[in-house]
Amino acid sequence: MIVIQAKLIFPNQEDKQIVLDLMRRWSSCMRFAYNRLLEGEKRADLKRKLPQVFNLNSRYVDDAIMKARSTLESAKELGKSPRKVIFGGKKLFRKLQKHHLNGKAYEKLKVKWQEKRKGNLYSRGDKSKKGNLNTRIEVRKNGTFLRINVGERKYVYAKIEAGYKKNKKRGELLQEIAESNIPYSVELKLKNGSIYAYIAIEEQYPEIKITKEKGIIGIDVNAYPDNISWAEVDEKGNLISYGSIPMPELASGNSDKREYFRWQYAHEIVKIAKEKRKAIVIEKLDIKNKGEKGDFSGKKSRRIRHNFSYKSLLKKIKILAKKEGIEVIEVNPSYTSIIGMLKYAPQYMITKDIAAAYVIARRGLGREEKIPDNYIKFLNALTIDELEELKEHVEKTVRNKQLKKKHLKEINKAIEILQSLESEPGRVLKPLDGTSFSAYDFWRVLKVAVVTPLSPEKVKRDFSVLKELLIQGKWGDP
């Protein structure tokens, strides 16, 4: 996505007021649509009745509904209550509620919030309508203008001014957009009494030339420590090379600084993939770790969401890879860390983060991760009494505030799985017919039985000690 920001200059104050009124009605329409979508109303029904309510054409209304739906889905994705969304900004609203400011300072804050709440308009692009029907770029002898549809066959023209005389490339790009009928979206925003336009076009990506046919680079992004681990595999899923890129700049600093470094690290990953002629596999961009209470309150979850910008970094890798014609595959990240630490970290003597990247790469090739035979033997020999002893030990450490309660939950789950296996002849480890247990559950049991006794206070990063158990099947010593 290429976005051009421009300030709009109106020939007279009357035209500006007409556009401000349009923005106010569109913003109200969007908020109204949001509340109706919360109540379960359908888009088709809203599109039919809202044009008369807000005196907007059907295209403006449809764009308002789309923005409302996008806001609703975003709130759900972040685990927030959609009913607590505040248009205009929650932080500004909370400041206004405190009444800690008086006079001009309070009025200035109030105006800023009202501008963010009521000063918006969005218009989608359409190739069949020569780029954009409601907000169209037109090039004239005396400059470049934005034609804004303010009513039936009524238009207001505003000059696009953003230093284009000094920046010929941007001016040429605007002319190219206007003359080529490329679909472009326009978003108007009111800031400090001025109206700004944000003109966006979808960038045309080159044909994908680097695919997974010759192998893959798997990417694992870690919140602690801040680093990107990568693993290169061939087309059969065999490990070829690996590495890790530390990212200390993402742990602190302002948002602009972190944004800059996210792009830099994304460039490094894409450069590796381009040099090795391998596709890239990343985790799906949903943040499913909501913390222990399910409200994003956990320490790791907060770091991922706020400081580390996990989702943003993966998006940048995806964008840059597409620009280079590199295939990007997204996979389910479930249990990649557990499988990596137990199966591949001791086998290849690599860190658990690189091992997780290896699992992600193999998953991108469609490879299934089978539990090694010696681990199956170990699990078949494991008794509930042994887990109960481990649970008793962990309960003591929890009381001493040395461990979190989540360790007890993991042990209880492992005991539950083994109890279900008691009736199985020979305790064959496979997904249980007629139960909700899957192969992933057995990896969970392994983690409890192997990792917790080794390091009950904190998950280890070096798992070389498991090599004898994994390869030679030696176990029995405490």
Automatic annotation (TrEMBL):
Domain of life of the native organism: Bacteria
Coiled-coil parts of chain: 384-424
Gene Ontology molecular-function annotations: DNA binding
Keyword Cytoplasm (UniProt): no
Swiss-Prot/TrEMBL keywords: Coiled coil, DNA-binding
Matches recorded under InterPro entries: Cas12f1-like_TNB (IPR010095), Transposase_put_N (IPR010094)
Keyword Coiled coil among record annotations: yes
Protein name per the record: Transposase
Gene source species: Caldanaerobacter subterraneus subsp. tengcongensis (strain DSM 15242 / JCM 11007 / NBRC 100824 / MB4) (Thermoanaerobacter tengcongensis)
